Amino acid sequence: MPEILDFDYVILGAGPSGLTFAHRLLDEGEPSFVVIEAEEEAGGLCRSVAVDGAPLDIGGGHFLDVKNARVTDFLFRFLPEDQWNRYSRITRIRMGGFDDIDYPFESHIYQLPEEEQAAVLDSVARAGCVTGAPEPSRFSDWIRWKLGDRIAEIYMLPYNWKIWSMDLDDLGAYWLHKLPDVSYEQTLQSCREKRPAGTVPAHGTFLYPKAFGYGEVWRRMGEQLGDRLCLNTKVTSVDVETRTVNDKFRGKRIINTIPWPLWWELAALPGDVAEAAGRLRHTSIDVDYVGRNETSDAHWIYIPDEDVPHHRLLCRNNFIAGARGGWTETNSARSGPSGKWRHHNTFAYPLNTIAKPDDIELVLTWARSQEIYGLGRWGEWEYMNSDVAVAHALDLAGELLSRKLEAP
Asked: What is the model's pLDDT at position 119?
């Protein structure tokens, strides 16, 4: 029998969530933990590699939002603020048959041809949320209710079909409420005055490292953990009763940032928990290098055109000094043959299926009863940006540490 190593915390996964949780423990004088990571480098989906002489983010496009000072101040400890460039976000939507228009679509209707503006305005006026029609529960109907038929048909439905590549009505509508209302009067005024309407989207201002890819901050965080980070160590088993991982690492608590469906083969789960974890669905994404520079000044471009396989194009020459080209993101179900360079992300985005809220609540409630805590994109089964993942990790670590202090 191999020697069993005891810790207060065993952290599964060295992505942004696991790394942040670990460093918050150190900040509070809690050294009894280990981080287990299957890959040879920390960072998870936020890792970067060098391709054609410049950084490329293997998980797609990752940028640091500046809105949460607690998060940015925390990360500046590992990659100081003066080593980041600050950008005002330039994002475009590439519409088949039209010139690229600015994002978000509903704020820039005035950039469409006048005939198309009229069609969009007419459909906005008849949108269910404008006329007071009952809110539907089916995804496709909800998008039409919220934005009108025309925006749904030329942008939102084809784009979502591309990125998720599934029957859209298998998705719930509960996660769509962050979409802003489209005001007919505001949109009409925007078209008349030829100026944007609506609110500034997430990442309105963002940071990206000056001399590195986005993965550098996470690489440094991993490096500073020293021998508390076990790289090239895939989780192969979890004994839930004793909270022992790989018959080697035993913890008073387990912090899980890896996908719950993997637990089906890792641990003996109660039947209802195993079934709920098995119903959680995700998409896989292929990231492909593109060597040519776009003529656009955009940092990234959304592409709803169903004749184009990829749904997003990242123009790294516009946010990485001295770089050329960029990369595309494509749902793996739509990918063609690989070109010069490709990275396949099996777990890219968790899906907000109709049953997901009940299923993940069941899994997380059971897990907490066993002193196992889901954290981050995969542990909480939420599509969250890295800044949100950091915030959640800081909060969970604070919660568990305070509970330890309060214990008799």
From this structure: 94
Write down which residue in 135, 167, 193 finishes a domain. Answer: 193
Same domain (yes/no): 77, 118: no
Contact by Cβ (8 Å): 4, 247: yes
Does the residue 96 lie in any domain? no
Show the tokens assigned to 282: 């995700």
Q: Give the whole-angstrom CA distance, residue 274 versus residue 224.
A: 36
Parallel, antiparallel or unpaired: strands 84-88 and 64-65: unpaired
Domain count, the chain: 2
Domain range spanning residue 294?
Answer: 5-90+208-406
Does the bond joining 104 to the residue before it have cis omega, within 30 degrees of 0? yes
* pLDDT value of residue 201: 57
d(CA 383, CA 282): 10
| 0.85 surpassed by pTM | yes
**CA 146, 150, 154: angle at the middle one, nearest 5?**
110
Determine the Cα–Cα distance for residues 263 and 241; give it in Å rounded to an integer: 14
Domain boundary, last residue among 193, 224, 255: 193
pLDDT digits (tens, 9 = 90+) for 303-342: 999 999 999 999 999 999 999 999 999 999 999 999 899 9
CATH number at residue 144: 1.10.3110
Decide if 200 is inside a domain. no
Mark whether 156 and 235 lie in a shared domain: no
Yes or no: say if 163 and 286 are a contact pair by the CB < 8 Å rule: no
- Kindly list the strands in the beta sheet with 64-65, ordered across the sheet, starting from the edge strand earlier in the chain: 64-65, 205-209, 84-88
Are 127 and 144 in contact by the 8 Å Cβ rule? The answer is yes
Closest alpha carbon to 381 in 357, 345, 350: 350
Q: Which residue, chain included where needed, has tokens 């030329």?
A: 154
Same domain, 187 and 216: no
278 and 218 within one domain: yes
Residue 98 pLDDT: 81
> Which segments of the chain have a pLDDT < 70?
1, 198-203, 404-408
The pair of structure tokens assigned to 95 is: 């519409």
Question: Tokens for 5?
Answer: 């190593």
- Residue 406: CB atoms within 10 Å: 7
Q: For the chain, give me the number of helices (H) and strands (E)?
A: 14, 19
Token pair 């907490």 in the structure block, residue: 368
113 and 165 inside one domain = yes
Assigned token pair, 40:
């040879």
Give the total residue count for the chain.
408
For residue 304, the domain's CATH number is: 3.50.50.60
Helix (H, G, I), strand (E, B) or coil at 253: strand
